[in-house]
Amino acid sequence: MARLARITVPGLPHHVTQRGNRRQALFAESGDYALYRDLLAERCRANAVSCWAYCLMPNHVHLILAPETAEGLSRAVGEAHRRYTAFFNARARVTGHLFQGRFASVAMDERHCLNAVRYLAHNPIRAGLADTPKGWPHSSVAAHLAGRDDALASVAPVLAMAPRFADLLAGSSSEELPPGEFAPSAAGGRPLGDAEFLARIERLLGRSVQPGRRGRKPKGVGAKTIT
């Protein structure tokens, strides 16, 4: 089955995830987190991409990025990961891919974006790395709680949706969030939002973004190619 072409919607937040390709951690030393953050921040600025939130875990990363152009997201993340890989491999005196395949990205509406922010903030707790979201130093939680940008995250977009950020972390906010954990893999690269949101994206992109019906197609009906 052909892989779904990446769906990038300028101006919207995208939940970006990528895991390491090796058993060893992506961040072998404490300074590696800061280096990755700085490289990504520089590439985001160069490609007109805003980072709304992030959480860097030992073996994977969660990012919420909003590109201004259709090409900006792939360029920013791809260039940052290539540069970080070159540094990591040179220090370890190894070759090969540090990250696992291409990164996953999902465009989201406001409700899903807020749930994704809460999901990534609690990731270190689920992994047993911290007792509270603020206790993990390699995320944007502290910046959002303080209301000040850090080296990577611009806090204004999330705080505009959730001014009481501490309540969002606790699972209570003015927005009604869907119950349960946000599952980035569930969307399969397709945008997350209600029917009106998806229809708006289809009009904007001129392509289908919703899963087709399962089962055999009637005779005479060809497969529609999505580019």
Protein described:
The protein is an alpha+beta fold and 227 residues long. The chain has helices at 30-46, 72-92, 110-126, 141-146, 156-161, 165-170, 195-205; strands at residues 14-19, 49-56, 60-67, 104-107. It is globular and about 50 Å long. The longest helix is centred in the middle third of the chain and has 21 residues, at 72-92. The chain has a single domain (14-179, 189-205), classed as Transposase IS200-like (Alpha-Beta Plaits), CATH 3.30.70.1290. Strand 2 and strand 3 form a beta hairpin. The protein has a 4-stranded antiparallel sheet with strand order 2-3-1-4, sandwiched between helices. Residues 172-181 and 213-227 have low confidence and may be disordered. The chain is built from 7 helices and 4 strands; from the N terminus they run E-H-E-E-H-E-H-H-H-H-H.
Read across the widest sheet, the strand sequence of neighbours is 2-3-1-4
User: Which structural class should the secondary elements be placed in?
Assistant: alpha+beta
Which series of helices and strands comes N to C?
EHEEHEHHHHH
* Net shape: globular
Q: Counting H and I runs of at least 4 residues, what is the number of helices?
A: 7
The average pLDDT value, as a whole number, equals: 85
* Broad CATH class: Alpha Beta
Distance between the termini: 14 Å
Largest sheet: 4 strands, antiparallel
What is the radius of gyration computed over CA atoms, rounded to a whole number of angstroms? Answer: 18 Å
The CATH architecture can be named as: 2-Layer Sandwich
Beta strand count: 4
Structurally, the number of domains stands at 1
Low-confidence segments? 172-181, 213-227
Could you name the CATH topology? Alpha-Beta Plaits
Taken as a percent bin, the fraction of beta residues is 5-15%
Level of helix content? 25-40%
CATH superfamily membership, which one?
Answer: Transposase IS200-like
